[in-house]
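REVIEWER CHECKLIST
Item 1: Sequence provided? yes
Item 2: Single chain? yes
Item 3: Sequence as submitted:
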Amino acid sequence: MNAQSHWMVLFEALTHNEAGYFYNDQLFSGVAIKHVQGLVVGCLIYREGEQLGDYVPPYLNQPEHAILDTVLESVLEPICVNGKPYSGIVYSVSQNGHVSGENVFVDGWEGQGTNYHYDSNIRHELALDSMLGEGDLLEEMYEWDESGEILSWDVALTSKLNESEGSIAFKVGQANEISHFTVTGEFFRIIDNSEKLVCPYNKVVEELSGFKTGSISKLYVVCSQRIYTQQEALRALISALKPVRLAMSRYECKWNGLIVFAAKEGISELEVVSACSEQETAALHTLMASQYPHIKMV
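Item 4: Structure as written out by the authors:
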């Protein structure tokens, strides 16, 4: 899902004749990086061998400088150039002039960036920050396999206006099942803005799960007062995903309503990482044993 990006190569790897610019004997569509002794001096966009204009990387608050990884003194972070921590983009170059990575460093430490599978325009990893409206910071992180199938999906949204935040993260197993599905805070805002994401939530979850019972092994709720206020959204999520196991970071009696709802929606396992007191732990076991003995306590 949305793993394919543009080809990225060094300009010197292109050939040129009257028909246009070529890479590996094919008219080139993608981005070509120009450099002088490893210092990037230009990034150009091509389509079907024709130069269209300048390429601007998509990263938020990116530094102005850009270099090839051949300039680095070491690949260990914090990375340095001329003995000083480097801030800027680093392009990693593999064989045949293929650019396998475009990563942003700030004071020597890696943050946003894109990495590609070997000699391919299929993304391997993407970390991208952007602003959603005036005060919301959106942080997206994805991983794909060589065929472009999603392996992990992690999105967080933080509001600078009211200091609220929420996140959704999950991984995909070998059998295309969703596992370790975790939600925190005002996660529903990410779902509401699904189509604004590089890898839209609604499309990828529906494609992977088909919203069938058992297709998602575990839904993990990081319990907090903020997420507790999102009962309607949590219940809608349980109804849609139909997880095998509901896992909760901690338990208090006030969560009984959600547990009962999940039981009625068909969960077969309940996991609680920690409880606030022995009395509440006993109350939970009494509830499950008396009303839902078929649900396994993990």
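Item 5: Key structural point noted by reviewer: The radius of gyration is 24 Å.
Item 6: Recommendation: ____
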